[in-house]
């Protein structure tokens, strides 16, 4: 996971509590102007630590024939609980 090249690192995002990783990613992407209606979160890889999850994922438009050529994104979710 550490050697994966990412298109964008969103840095650390503080959340009140932990929910499903996919839901967290989609909510974050939507809140930051990304099109979650026509794009899917896929190829999610998560490293969970005590109060945070380090997540890499792909965000792929429905019309893309294969996700293999799409870049990874990275978010570190930190939990306030």
Topology:
Blueprint: E1 6-15, H1 21-31, E2 39-48, E3 52-61, E4 72-79
Description of the structure:
Helix content is 14%, strand content 47%. It has 1 helix and 4 strands; from the N terminus they run βαβββ. It has one helix at residues 21-31, and strands at 6-15, 39-48, 52-61, 72-79. The termini are far apart.
What is the structure about, briefly put?
With 81 residues, the protein is mainly beta. It has one helix spanning 21-31; strands spanning 6-15, 39-48, 52-61, 72-79.
* Residues in β-strands, percent: over 45%
Individual helix count: 1
First-to-last CA distance:
26 Å
Percent of residues in helices comes to: 10-25%
Total separate domains = 1
Query: What Rg do the Cα atoms give?
Result: 12 Å
Structural class: mainly beta
Nearest-integer average pLDDT? 91
Strand elements, count: 4
Low-pLDDT stretches are none
Order of helices and strands: EHEEE
Could you give the order of strands across the largest sheet?
A: 1-4-3-2
Largest sheet, in brief, is: 4 strands, mixed
The geometry reads as: globular
Keywords:
81 residues; mainly beta; 47% strand; 14% helix; 1 helix; four-stranded mixed β-sheet
């Amino acid at each position: 996971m550490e050697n994966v090249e990412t298109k964008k690192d969103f840095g650390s995002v503080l959340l009140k509590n932990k929910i499903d990783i996919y839901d967290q990613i989609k909510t974050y992407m939507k809140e930051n102007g990304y099109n979650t209606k026509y794009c899917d979160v896929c190829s999610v890889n998560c490293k969970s630590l005590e109060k945070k999850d380090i997540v890499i994922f792909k965000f792929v438009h429905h019309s893309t024939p294969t996700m293999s050529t799409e870049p990874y994104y990275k978010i570190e979710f930190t939990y306030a609980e």
